[in-house]
Amino acid sequence: MQKKLILVDDHRMILHGLTSYITRASSWNVVFSATSKAELLEKLEFHKNDFVSENPEEPVQIVALLDINVGNDNGYELGNIIKSKLPSCHRIMYSMYCTYGNIMYAFENGAEGFISKDAEESELIVALDAVGEGKTYLQQDLMKKVIENTNKISLLTIREKQVFDLVCEGKTKKEISQILKVSIRTCENYFSFLYSKLDLSGFDDLISKFGGLS
To answer: Of 62, 71, 89, 169, whose CA is between 20 and 30 Å from 179?
Structure first.
């Protein structure tokens, strides 16, 4: 089994560290890394033949590990670009911002894994191996967070859930009021219900625990 890996992050020192550890601790081969959309497109074209097995009887596993924010580029969109060029590629998103919104958005947009940058290095290898085999992987402590929050979210009304979903997409209060075609005051009332049902202190707490990146 050939294991091919793509790394995407806008910090070269992080890429260097990841490449060094993964190469040393696993059988994954880092084909290339990229720090931007432009570099990713260039290297996908240059390395396109590196993802083809020289032996038809030896399958190839391909995984891309992407930060959700890559400079001014959206990591989710970069993952979709990779998928369009390499349809058999599986995607893992990783980030320091492991909010409910970011986690759910990742899986809803085709990612098969999500892991925190604070995770143990060994768990990264576990995630790569699982996703490479076509499985879904979510870091264990993040799984607990998702389950706990899902139980709370199930208590929201339809309208409250609409507001909540827009927060998870990274929308501001003003944008949410415009999308739902309600006044800011009405929107504030919905937020008050969210704070109460989700045990939050206010809008900043809501964003820090559930907010996503638009």
So the answer is: 71
> In this predicted model, what pLDDT tens digit does every residue of 113-172 receive, in sequence order?
999 999 999 999 999 999 999 999 999 889 888 888 888 888 889 999 899 889 888 888
- By DSSP bridging, strand 73-74 and strand 137-138 are unpaired
Which residues make Cβ contacts (< 8 Å) with residue 184, sequence separation at least 6? 173, 174, 177
**Distances 212 to 31, 166, 175, 189 between C-alpha atoms, Å:** 30, 9, 14, 21
Question: Amino acid letter at 210?
Answer: F
Number of CB atoms found within 10 A of residue 84's CB? 10
CA distance 144 to 21: 27
Contact 62, 90 (CB under 8 A): yes
* Token pair belonging to 93: 């998103």
Q: Please give the distance of CA 106 from its chain centroid, rounded to a whole number.
A: 4
pLDDT tens, position by position, 10-65 = 999 999 999 999 999 999 999 999 999 999 999 999 999 999 877 777 889 999 99
Here the tokens at position 62 are 């391909």
Site of tokens 């490479």: 132
Q: What is the DSSP letter of 75?
A: H
What does DSSP assign to residue 112? Answer: S
State residue 214's pLDDT score.
Answer: 46
Rounded distance between C-alpha atoms, residue 86 and residue 31, angstroms: 13
- Say which DSSP state 35 is in: S
